[in-house]
């Protein structure tokens, strides 16, 4: 049999096309209807309940471009950025971007070192979750949407807690413009992907 959307040949009885990810609708051979004389607008001998004229339109397959964009590009780039950021937190090289050494920062703000260490470990963890989410999307796993939402929830929580700890323990303003932007993006991406994957639960079934 062939996919209704992309035309690829797929195994008999498949419910989801492994090529494009869209649901497969079985093709039913249509039986030609013999024209019959009509009487007052009704076919002769037709049932009076009108059941012969019932029509159920076929639902258009939902697009998968956003899922493919996430699974093949966005989540991998995000995982790479989190990997680099996690290493930067653990090594203290995160401060090289502002022209100061980690030793100078930690000698003046000693509370920052354990905060950066914890942030580094958690950031590496978000990189792992991002890779898992990308693979789940590619393989059309049922938990793909949950992993994507969990990733952006973790990004939001990590950014918020880190900014709060830096502000309280060092008196340095932790809520910079980039931090606020990251928080907003995480919230938007959480709800957008939650709505998107909930509407495609019949596609992610593996």
From TrEMBL:
- Which Pfam families does the record match to this protein? Zn_Ribbon_1
Q: Which InterPro entries match?
A: Zinc_ribbon_dom (IPR026870)
Species whose genome carries this gene? Butyrivibrio hungatei DSM 14810
Q: Where is the Zinc-ribbon domain?
A: 3-24
Transmembrane segment boundaries: 69-95, 115-138, 150-173, 179-197
Q: What is this protein called?
A: Zinc-ribbon domain-containing protein
Keyword Transmembrane listed: yes
Which keywords appear in this protein's UniProt record, sorted alphabetically? Membrane, Transmembrane, Transmembrane helix
Going by the entry's taxonomy, the superkingdom of the source organism is recorded as Bacteria
Taxonomic classification, please? Bacteria, Bacillati, Bacillota, Clostridia, Lachnospirales
Is Membrane among this UniProt entry's keywords?
A: yes
Coiled-coil residue windows: none
């Amino acid at each position: 049999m062939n996919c209704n959307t992309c035309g690829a040949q797929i195994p008999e009885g498949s419910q989801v096309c492994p090529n494009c990810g869209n649901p497969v609708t079985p093709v039913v051979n249509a039986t030609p209807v013999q024209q019959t004389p009509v009487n007052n607008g009704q076919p002769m001998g037709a049932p009076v309940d009108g059941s012969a004229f019932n029509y159920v339109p076929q639902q258009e397959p939902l697009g998968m471009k956003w899922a493919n964009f996430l699974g093949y590009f966005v989540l991998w780039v995000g995982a790479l950025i989190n990997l680099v950021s996690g290493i930067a937190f653990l090594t203290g090289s995160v401060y090289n971007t502002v022209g100061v050494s980690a030793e100078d920062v930690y000698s003046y703000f000693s509370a920052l070192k354990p905060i950066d260490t914890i942030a580094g470990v958690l950031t590496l963890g978000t990189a792992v979750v991002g890779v898992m989410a990308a693979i789940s999307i590619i393989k059309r796993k049922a938990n793909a949407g949950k992993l994507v939402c969990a990733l952006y929830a973790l990004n939001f929580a990590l950014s918020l807690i880190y900014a709060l700890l830096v502000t309280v323990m060092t008196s340095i303003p932790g809520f910079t413009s980039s931090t606020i932007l990251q928080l907003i993006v995480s919230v938007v991406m959480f709800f957008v992907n939650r709505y998107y994957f909930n509407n495609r639960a019949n596609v992610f079934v593996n």
